[in-house]
Amino acid sequence: MAIEELPLPVSAAAVVVHGKDDLRIDQVPLREPRADEAVIEIAYGGICGSDLHYWLHGAAGESILKDPMVLGHEVVGVVARAAADGTGPEVGTPVAVHPATPGPGAARYPADRPNLSPGCTYLGSAARHPHTDGAFLRYANLPTRMLRVLPESLPLRLAALIEPASVAWHGVSRAGDVRGKSVLVVGCGPIGTLAIAVLKRAGASHITAVDMHQLPLDIAASVGADVVLLAPEAERIAAIEADVVIESSGNHFGLGTAINGATRGGRVVMVGLLPSGVQPVAISLAITRELELLGSFRFNEEIAEVIAALADGSLFVEPVITHEFALNDALVAFDMAKNSAQSGKVLLNFAD
């Protein structure tokens, strides 16, 4: 019997956040896909910082959880049922997922930067109500415009890093041409270490990595950092004078370190999402050094470049994955992912 003729289940196990400190594995009903949706059999999903925030705080930044929501946007899998309207890949095709849906609206934003669309929705996001469910479940109905065909040679486990690597790629691209430049990366969680790998590929001449813990620094060194420093070594950080700084810690201490470690006239790209509200940062140094402070938010079509770079081996990121858990062990996986001293990227294996 052809794969497309196999009946799909009426429900599937999913990772659902119900509120602060309330994460469950629920059976959720599977609706019939719309004409432009393919059914994707999810193979792997990476636990993102936003997933952790919804679980630990009931909110991710200003996106406040109001109803139970399926988490997950870092997913890859295989097409189990092709879209009825004939768009998108065929059954059996391995795919990655671009989880954004740019939103319409009158608010102004650059046409070539849909990530800045104010009405944009994202899989597994509570930014809008009703919330946008994610894809941490065995079978997910996804619009074909979100799907990116993967080379057969690219293992799905490694492909699970495509979405966060695209965030890192976008952040590095915001810095401009880094070839031959010295770079400081502050915060070596998965995004920070992926940024180091992207910087190495892009030809940065010297990369210094800073973190609070040793394991992230070990990962940073394995993907391309030339020097690693524990955060308390403030005097050494001030002496770096980096041409470019990637701030990926997502806290004001990290941003302060980034400003302190940048050379005069340097550029600081803020990838880590700080909490909403006023932040206590000594910004005067950015003024007197004429630093350029640039925001970086999600990504656009860099995902195609990331897929190509992973497929041809020029982007080395395998050490970023430190743990893998079966779906039934999702609660254990989340507990591990929140411990940055003991884990890098933690994956859920939906086929196991």
Spans of at least 5 consecutive residues whose pLDDT stays below 50 are 1-5
Query: What would CATH call the architecture of the largest domain?
Result: Alpha-Beta Complex
For CATH, the homologous superfamily of the largest domain is named as: Medium-chain alcohol dehydrogenases, catalytic domain
- Tally of structural domains: 2
Discrete helix count? 10
Number of strands: 20
Global shape: globular
Q: Helical percent range?
A: 10-25%
User: N-to-C SSE series?
Assistant: EEEHEEEEEEEEEHHEHEHEHEHEHEHEHE
Give the termini distance in whole angstroms. Answer: 24 Å
CATH topology tier name of the largest domain: Quinone Oxidoreductase, Chain A, domain 1
Radius of gyration: 20 Å
Note the main sheet. 7 strands, mixed
Mean pLDDT: 94
CATH class value of the largest domain: Alpha Beta
Beta content comes to 25-35%
Name the structural class.
Answer: alpha/beta
